């Protein structure tokens, strides 16, 4: 097997694995498939972790994951697909960051891995075993990479930043007890 063939096969495997996982996670949010909670349940969760409004946040995350994942798996519009998926995973990582890195403790390891892999695929390109290649890279041009990442970074910064401000404001309104209960009696 030639080196280019190996590279294209490797990119196909990365796209299928990463894109498939992302699409499945998005389908959990959007449709309640694979044990997910659908828009209603995911919307309630999104509200509880500071992404408001919850239903709109669930829809946006679900579309970025399902759409970005499906397009990555197909190797179509790879810069936009990878950037969208990476943005969604940045939002997920922000939720899990207080729990540390490792997934077993509720950390951001899994979201970061999916996001970085999606970003890497957006930059590297889909390889020859892709719809982008078949269509002459009409939606996979070099200029699309920085454009897709700039748009995604701006949107992600606004959404994650708004969430952080809401959480800080909510925490400022809370007051810790001055004395423990056992001393109050």
TrEMBL record:
It holds the Pfam family DoxX. Belongs to the DoxX family. Residues 1-23 form the signal peptide. The chain crosses the membrane at residues 71-95, 107-123, 143-161. It comes from Streptomyces iakyrus. It is a multi-pass membrane protein. This is DoxX family protein. Keywords: Cell membrane, Membrane, Signal, Transmembrane, Transmembrane helix. Its main location: membrane. It is found in: Cell membrane.
């Amino acid at each position: 097997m030639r080196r280019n063939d190996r590279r294209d096969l490797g990119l196909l495997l990365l796209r299928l694995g990463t894109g498939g996982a992302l699409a499945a996670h998005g389908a959990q949010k959007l449709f309640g498939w694979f044990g997910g909670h659908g828009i209603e349940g995911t919307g309630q969760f999104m509200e509880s972790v500071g992404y408001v409004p919850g239903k709109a946040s669930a829809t946006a995350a679900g579309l970025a994951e399902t759409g970005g994942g499906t397009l990555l798996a197909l190797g179509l519009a790879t810069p936009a697909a990878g950037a969208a998926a990476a943005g969604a995973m940045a939002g997920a990582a922000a939720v899990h960051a207080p729990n540390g890195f490792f997934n077993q403790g509720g950390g951001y390891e899994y979201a970061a891995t999916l996001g970085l892999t999606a970003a890497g695929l957006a930059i590297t390109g889909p390889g020859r075993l892709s719809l982008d290649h078949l269509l002459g890279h009409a939606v996979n041009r070099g200029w699309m990479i920085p454009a897709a990442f700039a748009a995604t970074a701006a949107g992600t910064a606004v959404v994650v930043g708004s969430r952080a401000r809401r959480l800080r404001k909510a925490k400022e309104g809370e007051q810790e007890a001055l004395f423990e209960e056992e001393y109050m009696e």
